[in-house]
Amino acid sequence: MPLVNTKEMLQKAYEGGYAVGAFNVNNMEMIQGIVSAAIEERAPLILQVSNGARKYANPIYLKALIESAVKESNLPIALHLDHGDSYELCVSAIDDGFTSVMIDASHHSFEENIRITRKVVEYAHPRNVTVEAELGRLAGIEDDICVSENDSAFTDPSQVQEFVERTGVDSLAIAIGTSHGVYKFKSEPKLRFDILEEVSKRLPYFPIVLHGASSVLPEYVEIIQNNGGAMKGAKGVPEEMLRKAAKMAVCKINIDSDLRMAFTAAIRKHLFENPSHFDPRQYLAPARENVKQLVKHKIKNVLGCNNKI
Q1: pLDDT in tens, 89-145
Q2: pTM of the full structure
Q3: Domain ranges in the chain?
Q4: Which residue in 82, 104, 256, 258 is the catalytic one?
Q5: What letters, b where the CB count within 10 A reaches 16 and e where it falls short, cover 70-92?
Q6: Is 82 a catalytic residue?
Q7: CATH T-level assignment (fold) for domain 7-303
Q8: Looking at residue 165, what DSSP letter applies?
Q9: Which residues are within 8 A (CB) of 249 and not within 5 positions of it... i.e. 6 or more apart?
């Protein structure tokens, strides 16, 4: 099965009351762990690559790894550009074989966001590539780009219909209280489900996306802390909130920080317990397994997309 775009898988997710996981990848072991989990759970899958990951791993290497995953798994897999911040970057990803791109022009004015997004759509759609855009602004850190809480802004539901109609986008990321990174909440976690509900009323049957949706699982925080790490105050989005969102209009949930934490927790624990080990295979194997088990958990208990092939 070749790479697919996200159109059909997100439509099925909306109708089925579940979400598809969009997992950020940076290296071979992460890809292997994620794909192995999806194979066992028979789940559709979005592998997404940020601009930072492209710089780190080289787009040619990453694409070859993902193409190998497609051949091995025979699953519907979309290759998605996460947080493309310019028309030029989105075009580059499309020309490199990505089947879905996100253009994030949310830091511009409403009219400029529409102009840039429409331009990407006009390039992508004739090439059978789906486009995600963002309306509203998330706080936190994404790929070393920091957005302060003062610059963040909830999505205005009154703008969503006009935005979608004038741009022609296939899905829309909205801001309802999630944020990038592992320090998402200073106090009790809260999501604006009223905004999500209003957006879904104004955009019936239209797929909504949640960014900054890692849960920062306490068990991984504890392992990292107990093995030389420092993550005091790390707090993510409770999984029950994400499951609720997945039963509503949210059809794609982005997961990045949880993968990094699972990966790092295994490496820290292994090296702390085995100080004489120096072969990367010794500590990367448990890191890969941690990623696999995390993704299986997310697919079954959070996203609800197991057995949805």
Answers
A1: 999 999 999 999 999 999 999 999 999 999 999 999 999 999 999 999 776 555 555
A2: 0.93
A3: 7-303
A4: 82
A5: beeeebbbbbbbbbbbebebbbb
A6: yes
A7: TIM Barrel (3.20.20)
A8: H
A9: 14, 196, 199, 200, 203, 206, 207, 208
